[in-house]
């Protein structure tokens, strides 16, 4: 009997406890608070972000293009007369000046023909002088005098032809350059228009580039350019030619940069990279970690305005490296979020923790990105 009473008391106690718990639940669900209900939690504090304040700097922009070095002039010299090669005076690789004899052909009877032509001219000159004397005395008609004069002129023309033919056996360089090739051999017979040698002129040197249609409007004749060759050598030059029409296949424009090459030190035919300045732009240097995408997928940077609210600025990269990037699109004076931008939304108010020990103009990052000599005037490739 006592055992049954104990079970009954336990059951009543359990039912009472359940009723108390459920009663409290329904009271809270109905919006009625009991005196023992806990107080509402305090409002969440604004997110804290790390911010660096900096000023925009002037960054020089340039077009970078690949090309190759080409000679200023190339000419294939050909024989203007026939004959056997008597002398070769400039072998392949030789440097020649304008007018230097490269090769000489056998004269054969050309000297004799010149002598006959000279004698014929002297004969006709005597005849013409005699004709003039007779004409003045009335012993010769004007027609006879004209015929004598015509014969003298014909003799002089034949003399000039003989002189030119003799001169043609000496094949000369038309300008200063280097003999690139010379296919003739001593004793070989050369026909008219036969190839004797090819000469290249590498001073000045010309770098041929292909520029895209998006960038061609930024280039003009006379514009400065800096060229680095595959050999490691560098030269400064100027644009001497900009094509007026794009290539139909590539839609690119041919641009030529001319630069000095004393003594032909840099050979033609090698690869080259040209950097052509096109102006400057105000830009900020930022770490890659500071860049983010907005909801539209555009690249940009989050900043904090004067009211400590987050703003997003679409950015264009004008120069980049593993250390960071120079970008446009930000205000000249910007408070850039460097840490925590991924956890805050545009328009959200934040708490600001200013970075310490960071240059306001990004000069430390610039030092890591650019050569020391370029820190004062950073440059941007396009």
TrEMBL record:
Indicate the transmembrane segments per the record. 7-27
Domain (CzcB-like barrel-sandwich hybrid) spans 73-201
Keywords noted in UniProt = Coiled coil, Membrane, Transmembrane, Transmembrane helix
* GO terms of molecular function: efflux transmembrane transporter activity
Q: Which Pfam families match?
A: Beta-barrel_RND_2 (PF25954), BSH_CzcB (PF25973)
Kindly list any coiled-coil regions of this protein.
Answer: 145-172
Keyword Transmembrane belongs to the record: yes
Please provide, in alphabetical order, the Gene Ontology terms of the cellular component aspect for this entry.
efflux pump complex
Source organism, top-level taxon: Bacteria
Q: Which InterPro entries match?
A: Beta-barrel_RND_2, BSH_CzcB-like, RND_pump_MFP
Could you tell me which residues belong to the region Disordered?
A: 355-382
Q: Where in this chain does the record put each CusB-like beta-barrel domain? A: 209-276
Tell me which NCBIfam families the record gives.
RND_mfp
In terms of PANTHER family, this protein maps to:
BLR2860 PROTEIN (PTHR30469:SF29), MULTIDRUG RESISTANCE PROTEIN MDTA (PTHR30469)
Q: Return the similarity comment.
A: Belongs to the membrane fusion protein (MFP) (TC 8.A.1) family.
Q: What protein does this entry describe?
A: Uncharacterized protein
Q: Which organism is it from?
A: Methyloceanibacter superfactus
Upper lineage: Bacteria, Pseudomonadati, Pseudomonadota, Alphaproteobacteria, Hyphomicrobiales
């Amino acid at each position: 009997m006592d055992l049954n009473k104990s079970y009954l008391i336990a059951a009543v106690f359990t039912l009472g406890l359940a009723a108390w718990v459920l009663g409290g639940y329904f009271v809270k669900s109905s919006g009625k608070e009991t005196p023992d209900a806990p107080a509402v939690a305090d409002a969440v504090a604004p997110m804290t972000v790390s911010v660096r304040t900096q000023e925009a700097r002037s960054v020089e922009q340039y077009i970078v293009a690949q090309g190759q070095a080409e000679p200023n002039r190339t000419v294939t010299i050909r024989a203007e007369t026939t004959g056997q090669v008597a002398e070769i005076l400039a072998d392949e690789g030789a440097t020649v000046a304008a007018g230097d004899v490269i090769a000489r052909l056998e004269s054969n009877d050309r000297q004799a023909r010149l002598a006959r032509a000279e004698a014929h001219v002297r004969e006709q000159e005597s005849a013409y002088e005699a004709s003039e004397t007779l004409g003045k005395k009335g012993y010769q008609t004007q027609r006879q005098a004209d015929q004598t004069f015509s014969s003298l002129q014909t003799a002089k023309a034949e003399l000039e032809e003989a002189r030119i033919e003799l001169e043609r056996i000496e094949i000369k360089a038309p300008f200063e350059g280097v003999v690139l090739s010379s296919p003739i051999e001593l004793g070989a017979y050369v026909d008219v228009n036969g190839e004797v040698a090819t000469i290249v002129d590498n001073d000045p040197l010309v770098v041929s580039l292909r520029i895209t249609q998006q960038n061609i409007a930024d280039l003009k004749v006379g514009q400065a350019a800096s060229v680095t060759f595959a050999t490691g050598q560098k030269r400064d030059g100027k644009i001497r030619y900009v094509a007026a029409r794009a290539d139909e296949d590539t839609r690119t424009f041919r641009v030529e940069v001319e630069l000095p090459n004393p003594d032909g030190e840099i050979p033609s035919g090698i690869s080259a990279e040209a950097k052509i300045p096109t102006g400057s732009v105000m830009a900020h240097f930022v770490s890659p970690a500071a860049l983010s995408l907005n909801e539209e997928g555009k690249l940009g940077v989050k900043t904090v305005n004067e009211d400590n609210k987050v703003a997003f600025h679409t950015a264009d990269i004008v120069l980049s490296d593993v250390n960071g990037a120079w970008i446009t699109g930000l205000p000249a004076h910007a408070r850039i979020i460097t840490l925590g931008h991924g956890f805050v939304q545009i328009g959200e108010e934040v708490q600001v923790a200013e970075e310490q020990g960071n240059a306001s103009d990004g000069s430390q990052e610039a030092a890591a990105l650019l050569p020391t000599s370029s820190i004062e005037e950073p440059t941007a490739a396009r």
